[in-house]
Write a structure and sequence with these properties.
heterotrimer, A alpha/beta (360), B mainly alpha (283), C alpha/beta (276), B: 283 residues, mainly alpha, 2 strands, 70% helix, flat, C: 276 residues, alpha/beta, Rossmann fold, four-stranded antiparallel sheet
């Protein structure tokens, strides 16, 4: 089942003025229910315009040519617009700036109340939403959202969205401006949200490490067009394309490239630090085996240089040398290259455009 | 619901009108507005419209940008015309139905009033479209300078004005963002009766106030950090100079004003005759 | 004598009646002219408060701060201190005063009461320094975040400061904007301006020569990036290592010592040395 079906969607801002700008250029995109899609692209590439089409905040300009079907509902249909808004939870950038009520409870209840749910259901959802984002109901419900810390405010704002229990959750730069601890907590929370509340997640992010860690599909926009669509590993392995879009690579991939320049070749399909670690470890094991232990000792001693851990290193090195010698060169990547599916980075989404005609 | 609000914002273009001294523009706009109230005949209105069109062309503005500002007062125009149309009871009766009477005089007065309003707003919007907020504030400050003799804090007022103008687009964007966010949570901002609508605005207005205060706070720090002071110690980078084009513009607008005055007080027959020539029996 | 001397400074925020918050506690620190310092710590560690103390936006509740020997509490010299210690703030939209870029850059020099020719010279110089000269007649609201922050830096540079404080100036920017701003900062450091970059982005902190970490208003760690990243106190400050340094640490635990790693480049070099 497709959660989102977008066909031939274009959008022009400030039509007919000198500031006219083509924000979306014939977008075709379908998103499978239960997937975690990262939407990437430089600022101004059309990401925000695209996501605002998903819950009808922006209506398709050309209603004949284009259609946006979300959860089987046409986003241009006024009758189902309200229901659609409750099915697509939208967490905008810096969502804490939208808090308004005098208590956390009332703010989180805003969405469920707009859904006209019975009072006991509203309060059940508020409780659940607060607990899900990691805020104790009894401690926070009666507090003013304006007295909370930045991280807490953001959690309250997110709770306000997930209290509607949307099927699709859209997050626009959810960790922007948070300190490292806040970031880590919130990123972990997003995974939980997908498991417990919204099976389909669309994440807009500039942080490619977050994208690599969380998403199972990456859709890249440039000047309002989809220029890459596929598994993060596939998309990020097209280095030229990523450069061309004006984006970063995940740290792990950047390090792979730096190593390559220095003559050490690892797989271009490494995207997380854990994979990089495995790849490096297996190279070291292989080296230790190939060069024989003497060389290995010399290397390690040279680098650790009086470090009291040197002995420990040498011991582990011995173990490492026992590992099978088959692992070689860039095959040491944790990911087999055979998994690369053709040209993973070109408008794959076209194939999904056949079954979107569920009318409302 | 906030999307259609037009603030008559600055329209960037490289034109002679844009480059005019803002003080001259302010004064000439005022002269033009006063002039409109002296216009009596259709001939006078045509002169005014001609002047306006010349300025629009010289300013390289698209007609639509000027008309957009007129759209903002459309409701006002319609309401006042209806009132005018039925309130004026002297002159030849054209239509009569129960207590409602429409007279020839009423029709003319109404048309002229509409013309007056439209020309007035268009003229004023030309100022806003061709002058940046900072230039406007600087111009006002410079014109109000004499007031500082009677202890009016002219510099502070000018700074407040220019900052207010500078933040209009920012707050406008902010409002749109908040509206989107609350709509995404199912808020209905444009349905229900007036009370429901006012109540529905709370989730928009409160965050807007909160953020405006935050912005004001941060801006105050940023200004202090850059040594802001409203004393005479302050200097200006831009020193307005009266150019030939300013003199020319003043000449054009003042000629217009003179013609309007002459036509009204000394040669009223000119306007009447020309009106008759063009519209004939319609009058 | 160090250019900036912070001597036993505390700062108390009055919150409401009877409630106050001690944001900075008995802090002593000195910074030499020409240093490039990253000031970091988790939210609420007092780093932004410290920034505002440095140019006299806040006055110490206890202790004193000397800028080139002049106390920030000295009201007669306050404009001089603010001119010498320029500050760029977090939100690009809340620090532009004027609509037109050149007008905004001129704001500082105008406040200093400089003659017209000098203002124009300085605006030209400052816009040039941040690479925004061609935008001078543009509307500030229409720039990208990175461009707005470069204009904000130009606004400070036009006052010819000795110190540039960036108060989380890149935290609202996308990676491209961050890169733009840090590029300008690097150039200024080379030209000898003292830069204090307040950030909780550790990759950015690693670019500085010295990292100062605050925890709950107190000085927790002070040293080179590598010293700070390897400090046992580091994690208790609520900070996380930049990914490359974190991986180096993990590898070390597996018996592979990559050496001192603060940046991706130094990580790659370390690996290279091991494998060559």
């Amino acid at each position: 089942m497709q959660a989102v079906e977008i066909k031939n969607l274009s959008f022009v801002y400030s039509k007919g003025t000198p500031n006219e700008k083509l924000a979306l250029d014939n977008i075709n995109l379908s998103i499978e229910e239960g997937s975690f899609v990262a939407l990437i692209g430089a600022t101004g590439s059309g990401k925000s315009t695209l996501i605002q089409h998903l819950n009808g905040l922006i209506k398709p300009q050309d209603k004949k040519q284009s259609s946006v079907i979300v959860g089987g509902k046409n986003a241009a249909d006024k009758k189902t617009l309200k229901t659609l808004r409750f099915e697509v939870g939208m967490v905008f950038q810096y969502p804490e700036y939208q808090l308004f009520a005098d208590t956390v409870e009332k703010d989180v209840a805003f969405g469920p109340k707009n859904m006209k749910l019975p009072a006991d259901e509203v309060s059940r959802r508020v409780k659940r939403a607060l607990e899900t984002v990691g805020l104790d109901y009894n401690e926070f419900a009666e507090r003013s959202p304006f007295d909370l810390s930045g991280g807490e405010k953001r959690r309250v704002a997110i709770a306000g969205v997930i209290a509607m229990e949307p099927k699709i959750l859209v997050l626009d730069e959810p960790v922007a401006g948070l300190d490292p601890a806040g970031r880590a907590e919130l990123l972990a929370l997003i995974k939980t949200l997908q498991k417990e509340v919204s099976p389909t997640v669309i994440l807009v992010s500039h942080n490619m490490d977050d994208v690599a860690a969380l998403a199972d599909r990456v859709v890249a926009l440039k000047d309002g067009r989809i220029v890459a669509d596929g598994a993060p590993r596939d998309v990020f392995s097209h280095r030229g394309l990523i450069m061309d879009i004006g984006l970063d690579l995940p740290t792990a991939a950047r390090i792979v490239d730096k190593l390559e320049k220095k003559g050490i070749t690892l797989s271009k399909r490494i995207i997380t630090m854990a994979e990089l670690k495995d790849a490096l470890l297996s190279i070291f094991k292989k080296r230790a085996k190939k060069r024989g232990n003497n060389m290995g000792y010399a290397q390690i001693n040279a680098v650790t240089d009086g470090d009291k851990n040197a002995d420990k290193n040498v011991e582990e090195r011995d173990e490492a040398s026992l590992v099978d010698e088959k692992a070689k060169g860039d095959e040491s990547s944790p990911v087999s290259d055979e998994k690369a599916e053709g040209d993973g980075a070109k408008d794959e989404n076209d194939s999904g455009s056949a079954g979107g005609g569920e009318d409302v | 619901m906030f999307k259609d609000v037009a603030f008559g914002q600055y329209y960037p273009a490289n034109s002679a009108v844009h480059k005019l001294d803002s003080r001259i523009k302010l004064i000439l706009t005022l002269v033009y507005i006063i002039g409109i109230f002296f216009v009596k005949s259709y001939f006078g209105f045509m002169l005014t419209a001609a002047l306006l069109i010349i300025i629009i062309i010289a300013a390289k503005l698209p007609m639509a940008s000027v008309l957009r500002s007129v759209r903002g007062i459309l409701l006002l125009v319609v309401l006042t015309s209806i009132i005018n149309l039925f309130m004026i009871k002297d002159g030849d009766v054209l239509v009569q139905w129960k207590i409602f009477v429409i007279t020839k005089n009423g029709v003319h007065t109404t048309i002229k009033m509409v013309l007056r309003l439209v020309l007035l707003i268009s003229g004023a919007s030309l100022l806003a479209l061709t002058t940046t907020p900072v230039e406007l504030a600087d111009g006002l400050e410079s014109l109000m300078r004499p007031l500082s003799l009677i202890k009016v804090p002219v510099r502070d007022i000018a700074m407040i004005m220019s900052i207010a103008l500078r933040f209009i687009p920012t707050l406008f964007d902010e409002t749109n963002k908040i509206v989107s966010a609350q709509k995404a949570r199912g808020a209905s901002l444009d349905t229900g009766n007036i009370f429901a609508r006012i109540k529905a605005l709370i989730p928009v207005l409160i965050p807007l106030f909160v953020s405006s205060f935050r912005r004001a706070d941060e801006l105050a720090f940023a200004m202090d950090a850059r040594c802001y002071n409203a004393t005479d110690k302050r200097t200006k980078m831009k020193k307005p100079k009266i150019k030939f084009s300013d003199v020319l513009a003043a000449f054009v607008v003042l000629s217009f004003f003179t013609v309007i005055l002459l036509e009204r007080y000394y040669f009223p027959s000119v306007g009447i005759n020309i009106d008759a020539m063009i519209f004939g029996g319609l009058l | 004598m160090p250019f900036i001397e912070i001597k036993g400074v505390s700062y108390v925020y009055p919150l409401r009646e009877g409630v106050s918050l001690k944001a900075v506690k008995n802090l002593s620190l000195s910074i030499e002219a020409g240093e490039f310092v990253a000031l970091t710590g988790m939210n609420g560690s007092g780093k932004s408060t410290l920034a505002k103390l440095l140019n006299g936006l806040f006055k110490p509740t206890e202790g004193e701060i000397l800028i080139d020997g002049v106390s920030t509490a000295n009201e007669e010299r306050i404009f001089d201190i603010r001119r010498r210690v320029g500050m760029v703030f977090q939100n690009p939209d809340n620090q532009t005063v004027a609509t037109l870029i050149e007008d905004d850059v001129a704001f500082g020099p105008e406040n200093l009461g400089l003659p017209r020719d000098e203002i124009i010279k300085r605006v030209n110089f400052a816009l040039q320094a941040v690479g925004m000269s061609e935008y001078r007649k543009r509307d500030a609201a229409k720039l990208s975040g990175g461009q707005k922050q470069r204009v904000a830096i130009a606004g400070v540079l036009a006052m010819r400061p000795d110190v540039l404080i960036l108060d989380e100036a890149t935290s609202m920017l996308d990676p491209a904007g961050r890169e733009e701003v840090m590029g300008v900062v690097r150039k200024l450091v080379e030209q000898g301006i003292t830069v204090i970059n307040i950030t909780h982005n550790m990759e950015e902190a690693a670019l500085a020569k010295r990292v100062v970490v605050l925890r709950k208003g107190r000085l927790a760690i002070d040293g080179t990036p590598s010293q700070v990243f390897s400090s046992s106190l580091f994690e208790s400050c609520g900070l996380t290592l930049p990914p490359a340094a974190a991986l180096a640490k993990e590898l070390k635990d597996s018996g592979i010592d990559v050496g001192t790693v603060t940046t991706e480049e130094s990580f790659a070099e370390g690996i290279c040395k091991l494998l060559r």
